[in-house]
Amino acid sequence: MSDRRDGAPEGAGDDGDDATDPSPDGGHASATPSTHTVRLELVDEPGQLLAALHPIADNGGNLLSIYHERGNKTPRGRIPVEVDFEATQERFEGIVEALRSEGVNVMQAGTERYAEEVTLLLFGHLIDTDLSDTLSRIEACESASVADVSLAAPQGTEEASSARLRVEARAGETDAALAAVRELAEEKELRLVEPLMGVEA
């Protein structure tokens, strides 16, 4: 994993706005630019990083640094990228919305964190039903992020396999994350074993 933190590309995010310029909302305190961080998940293909930076620059973000973790893949085989930039709170919210509308998976945005963690077990024909698709659709639920996957499969795809998923959910949204996994398991005829909640070990 690389620990090199790159500076923002020359000119990226520089739309002529100075950080002290008043914003269209009249220069209220909420319009004061501050530093924000988004953690993205990108496909390891040429041009993906640049495409993800455009929504930030195009929506008034001033890029500060990019941490491109090429040596550390996510469970879906993608690359985590951490981007720091300056923007007002209003523009920050617009940037996150723009990233998601462009299909960029935002794993974390500012103080929005995946603070709760559950471990689930899935049994069934995971390979035949496209495990990559299963993981992608869990990630598509804004409440959840797949932190780790452990697959146990016999040789070939004829037999049932099992997967242990460590799923991180946003604070207070664990129920929504579990509901999304339940629905997906039912659709794909997979057996889901959920964690016991509220039981002391």
From TrEMBL:
Residues 1-34 are annotated as: Disordered. It comes from the Archaea. This is Amino acid-binding ACT domain protein. InterPro entries: ACT-like_dom_sf, ACT_ThrD-II-like.
